[in-house]
């Protein structure tokens, strides 16, 4: 069957109207951050400044954008919301490691893209570095550590690796601490213990001083 120009015009008109009146949710707007279309991890370091630019692709009208830092909404200036929006993360610290920034489409917040900060830094050690205990008591030396990447941990005493004695020493390690437990301390446990943390970036140490006092006479 031959198509007449009138029939062809009607079909084209119908298709055009169909496209124009599609629900907005059917339009496949895509978000990008720094040119990336999928969630990604951004490697950075303390003291750095990072700029994140979110943009709407395939939009047919002005789109408002929202930014979130973890679950909290980021305040944006009026001229930094429509079709493209930037946030600057300045003076980055170790505590920013793992923080996520998410850009969302205001009208449909299921359309989003996230960036997770990967802040690399050398080991940071802390803990109670001076303890005095009596003989036969128990004591814990706890070396707290923050490091990215994770550090290898070790205890030393007077510059030598501790010779762990069964039922006397116990070492426990988590991603955030290295603990040396000493049961029924003896005078020979007196001295300086060194917590050593080694990462691909740097080796750090912290000294812990243990003073063992003799039991009072008669005890």
Automatic annotation (TrEMBL):
Its main location: membrane. The keyword Methyltransferase does not apply. InterPro entries: Cell_adhesion_signaling (IPR051275), Ig-like_dom (IPR007110), Ig-like_dom_sf (IPR036179), Ig-like_fold (IPR013783), Ig_I-set (IPR013098), Ig_sub (IPR003599), Ig_sub2 (IPR003598). SMART domains: IG (SM00409), IGc2 (SM00408). GO terms for cellular component: cell-cell junction; cytoplasm; plasma membrane. It is a single-pass type I membrane protein. Residues 1-28 form the signal peptide. It comes from the Eukaryota. Transmembrane segments: none annotated. Residues 23-114, 123-209 form the Ig-like domain. Homodimer. This is Transmembrane and immunoglobulin domain-containing protein 1. It comes from Oryctolagus cuniculus (Rabbit).
């Amino acid at each position: 069957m031959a198509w007449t120009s009138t029939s062809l015009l009607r079909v084209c008109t119908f298709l055009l109207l169909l496209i124009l009146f599609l629900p907005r949710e059917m339009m496949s707007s895509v978000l990008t951050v720094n040119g990336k279309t999928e969630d990604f991890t951004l490697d950075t370091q303390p003291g750095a400044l990072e700029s994140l630019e979110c943009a709407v692709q395939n939009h047919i009208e002005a789109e408002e954008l929202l930014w979130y830092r973890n679950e909290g909404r980021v305040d944006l200036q009026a001229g930094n919301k429509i079709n493209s929006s930037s946030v600057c993360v300045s003076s980055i610290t170790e505590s920013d490691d793992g923080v996520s920034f998410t850009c969302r489409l205001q009208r449909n917040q299921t359309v989003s893209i996230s960036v997770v900060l990967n802040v690399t830094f050398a080991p940071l050690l802390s803990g109670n570095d001076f303890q005095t205990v009596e003989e036969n008591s128990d004591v814990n030396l706890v070396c707290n550590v923050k490091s990215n990447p994770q550090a290898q941990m070790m205890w030393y005493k007077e510059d030598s690796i501790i010779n762990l004695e069964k039922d006397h020493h116990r070492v426990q390690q988590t991603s955030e601490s290295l603990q040396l437990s000493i049961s029924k301390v003896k005078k020979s446990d007196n001295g300086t213990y060194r917590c050593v943390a080694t990462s691909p970036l740097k080796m750090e140490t912290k000294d812990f001083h243990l003073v063992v006092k003799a039991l009072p006479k008669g005890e």
